[in-house]
Amino acid sequence: MSINAHTSASTGDCRIVSLERFGDLAGTLSVVENGSASPLGYDVRRVYYLFDVPAQASRGGHSHHEQSEFLVAVSGSFDVTLDDGATQTVHRLNRPDRGLLIKPGIWRTIDNFSAGAVCLVLSSGVYDESDYVRSYDEFMTLSAGKR
Questions:
Q1: What are phi and psi of 91, to 5 degrees?
Q2: Does the model's pTM come out above 0.70?
């Protein structure tokens, strides 16, 4: 397991990605594909989604050593706070054709969920508990070189 991401990652490495839209009278479609066509820079290895989150609840609260994640508000809206140990940024996600690409080594929390919000997550890796940093104190220790 590598901790390099925590000492080198910056909130500036994370970015909003606009997905291509295909629309007609029957509706609109956006696509994320694996391979060279992927706008994420990695193949998706795991997909999960958060829903029925109470407005006052906070989700996330972790960083990853190696996995990248792409978050999309497929319905409703929510805020994603990114923290690299020195800088925090907040992104409001509220469009199903735009998502937030989060690099390894970045602490994230998700809150301010609207009614009916659904957060889709496309991850670069399968679930691996050893890839998670779930303690903010541990995250800050791993990120100490940035302060």
A1: -120, 130
A2: yes
